[in-house]
Amino acid sequence: MTGKRGRPSAGEKAQRHERVVDVVVALLAAEGYGAVGFDRVSTEAQVAKRTLYADYGDRLGLVRAAVRRQHAYADEAWTAEADLRAASVSVVAHLLDDDAIAVHRALVGAAGADASLAAEFYEQGPGRAQRFLVAHLPPDAADRGDLLFAALLGEPHRRRLLGLAPAPTPAEVEAHVDRVLTALALGGAGETPPRA
Predict the structure, then answer these.
(1) What phi and psi, each to the nearest 5 degrees, are found at residue 48?
(2) 52 and 84 co-located in one domain
(3) Which domain covers residue 20, as residue numbers?
(4) Are 54 and 29 in contact (CB under 8 A)?
(5) Does residue 2 fall inside a structural domain?
(6) Rounded to two decimals, what is the model's pTM?
(7) Would you give the DSSP letter of residue 80?
(8) How far are the Cα atoms of 20, 155, 165, 181 from residue 56, in angstroms, in the given order?
(9) pLDDT of residue 9
């Protein structure tokens, strides 16, 4: 086999990371947490096990990468400029998509038997989403972050987890966010309170 030698470029590392996360998400969705292991991920992502250990450390590191991708909105550059409505739309759209639902099902199913998995999933998932929303709330409403998160996900998320509803359309996401923001007196379409 002939190939390029030396350190991979940033672009190559990003592509490798995406392949790894794609495999982890697919394994979680199809077979559950028990299927996620370094041998399997290495083979399916075509990445050396040694590289996986260096990049992710352990199995929880692989899962962390998958969960963080479901919450990619928190890493995007625009987030500092986004208003509460845009931030809420992003959270709902990301967390009600098919991959996020599959990852959530798999990890909740396994979390009861693994306290470190439960803590990691909560920190990188729901906890991260709530911190993201709080950062977009006006100062006098910062104590409503958990309520906002619960209302945004609530029944639509439960129905998705149970397979009773398809992923919402962008228009359905926006309408739901507007209802929630209005109900919590946090604004709605075109009315989001200013941040400090």
Answers:
(1) -60, 140
(2) no
(3) 11-65
(4) no
(5) no
(6) 0.82
(7) G
(8) 10, 34, 34, 38
(9) 82
